[in-house]
Amino acid sequence: MKLIQTIILSMLCTPIMASCNNSKATNADNQAVSKTSTSAVQATSKEISKEKGVAGQIASVTKKGKAVFLVVFNKKGADKDKAISIAKKALAKKSNSAEIIELNTTEASNNDLITKFSLAGAPLPLIIVMDKNGIPAGGLKLAEATPDALADMIPSPKNSEVIKALNEKKAVFIIAYKEKMIEKKKAITNCINAAKVMKNEAAVVLLNTDNKAEKLLISNLQIDINSTEPAIYTVNKSGQITGTFTPKTSIAQLTVAASKVMSGCGGGCASGCN
């Protein structure tokens, strides 16, 4: 599912510096840094709000409901300046929804964030996009970064809901619907009950396919906008899409799908590993 690379979903199977099965920085140098692991993203804005410095800056921005372009670098110079310039151009496209913050990996005060986001050995400079909850939602190293690509990485509201749930180690039921669909209520009820069966270790996200603000998420999930009935997408705790179902699907089937463990990034990994 190649199109899934830029969503939720885009950073939840692998470390930020590597591919699915290789965490070495040499491997990361050959790839756009567009993914990170769930374990590396356990910092919510609530957690980092207790800290000072860059962590405090991030908390301050996300408290306002804004995303963050986090420019990570280890030395000043042309490359760092170029990364800042690209981030500023991206910000111009999203001026009311994001702010730029710099993180110097050579400063000891940033060691906790370096560990938290698995930045040791990552190709620098790079730009990480954090959503309004302070959770990394995507990132690009300098050679791959463009203003448009960064702007597009800012999660939509529903995308952020999914990222937040996965960051909390929950599975997700995404219900794609239109307001006039007759079986919308049934789909929602089944998913809510399935989440209860899973002892609330699953979240339900309602995705209105008529919402233009969710256009990218709808496209990446390859949702049929001409469908006449809701579609239910099950995503396991690792961010892998494990199935697509109709409102008639039983609660038992939904819970089994949402709990399904898949090896590596195979079988439709939401991060789109190649």
Give structural notes.
The chain is an alpha/beta fold. It folds into 2 domains: 7-154, Glutaredoxin (3-Layer(aba) Sandwich), CATH 3.40.30.10; 158-258, 3-Layer(aba) Sandwich (Glutaredoxin). The chain is 32% helix and 18% strand. The chain contains 10 helices and 8 strands. The strands form 2 sheets. Strands 2-1-3-4 form a 4-stranded mixed beta sheet, with helices on both faces. A 4-stranded mixed beta sheet has the order 6-5-7-8, sandwiched between helices. A hairpin with a 5-residue loop joins strand 3 (126-130) and strand 4 (136-141). Helix 4 packs across helix 6 (147-153) and helix 8 crosses helix 10. The longest helix is centred in the N-terminal third of the chain and has 16 residues, at 78-93. The protein is elongated.
Q: What labels describe this entry?
A:
4-stranded mixed sheet, 274 residues, disordered N terminus, Glutaredoxin, elongated, 8 strands, 32% helix, disordered C terminus, alpha/beta
Topology summary:
Layout: H1 25-28, H2 45-48, H3 53-63, E1 67-73, H4 78-93, E2 98-104, H5 111-116, E3 126-130, E4 136-141, H6 147-153, H7 157-167, E5 171-177, H8 184-197, E6 202-208, H9 215-220, E7 231-235, E8 241-245, H10 251-258
Parallel strand pairs: 1-2, 5-6
Antiparallel strand pairs: 1-3, 3-4, 5-7, 7-8
Helix pairs in contact: 4-6, 8-10
